[in-house]
Here is the input.
Amino acid sequence: MTTNPTVKSSDMDAYENIYACICDLNGTFRGKRLPVDQAQKVRQDGLRMPLSLAAVDIWGEDVENSNLVFETGDADGIARDTGRGIIRSDWGTKPTAMIPLWLFEEDGTPFVGDPRQALKAVVDRFSALKLTPVVATELEFYLCDPTEAEPMPPLSPVSGRRLDTDGVMSLDDLEHFDAFLNDVYAACATQGIQAEAAISENGAGQFEINLKHVADPLRAADDAMLFKRLVRGVARAHGFAATFMAKPYGTRSGNGFHVHFSLLNASGENVFDNGGPDGSPIMMQAIAGLLATMQENTLAFAPHRNSYRRLLPGAHSPSNVAWGYENRTAAIRIPGGDGAARRIEHRVAGADANPYLVLAAILGGALLGINEGMRPAAPIKGDAYTQKLPTLPLDWASAIKAFETGHYVPQIFSARLQKMFVECKLQEQMRFNQHVTEFEHSSYLEKV
Here is the structure.
């Protein structure tokens, strides 16, 4: 496991305060600002926080009629150190520190509504089979001009001109934003996140940074959460805004969150490798499980109203349930290369999704396929967008319903988390439905 370059006790005098926080279902850090002298106590004894904090909506409001709030009197649980330690954040005007926490019941048992606990439960099932998932993530994001009311590409720090082209793999774009990227990599090193290649993506001001594969899914999800936070922080320090919103521009590429994974046995061998390009029978079972659970789990991959703008057919994101070899139009891609690195790439999730829920859904689906000996349909060839294939839920309401009623969802997630997530999304959906957009007014007001 990667070492954690955490803040030493002797260095704590440099900090005025510390943030102790958990991750909620929407992938937002929520917690408390504490005097720095309480840091070690929090790490040793934990911190009391309401269990309902994990289930608030995207605006930070309690879900109405949630049994976590009303039936239990909004009871506290214990938020404990995840083991990451005290993490430094140096991009602001003053250095700050953070302690990532996760939730437990009063009696010390894991709070199953905590998204990190959901992933831990799936990982434990792999451990029982003496299998270790090895996970790598790829996150896309846009830099935007923070002075504009709506998203606009940023001004180049070199030319001073606004980016206006989709410069895929552009070296010029990478060089123009070199200072920002250098600080992102420095912040990653400070927080123990192993960042690898950076590329300029399809959208104006869009970048992708790959995080190195690790034999610890919890670590991979922690890294993705911290990465999103530090990118936004470093962007502000450079005069930009950064967004992981799935589709900030209607006519430009969306932000994806691609996940690569393989499985190691007790001897450290990749069980997906059969010595050839096709992959092993256990890899076929994992693929079949991913396909069988994909529609039900779409809400974990696309949790917000905006998420479904990215999943529109033909929008260069997966919209069909299919897999293929070296085929980026398919939801599941099997990359080529050395058999020892044989792996599955899951391409459905948007960068707006909660990394813990994404990895729990992916690994949980793969595990179901392995345990039940499932077999996948034949791999597709050619353009998946133009073929007659089963589709993902293409709107938010359908995805919420699929997650609520899914056959496989309770075999991956706890009943409590399933109910919490559905109630949270229904509340958000209701609020969005109450807002009429300017485009609707201009289209309909005096015409219908």
About this structure: Residues 38 and 156 are 43 Å apart (CA to CA). The chain has a mean pLDDT of 92. Residues 9-111 form a domain with the Ubiquitin-like (UB roll) fold (CATH 3.10.20.70). The longest strand covers residues 132-144.
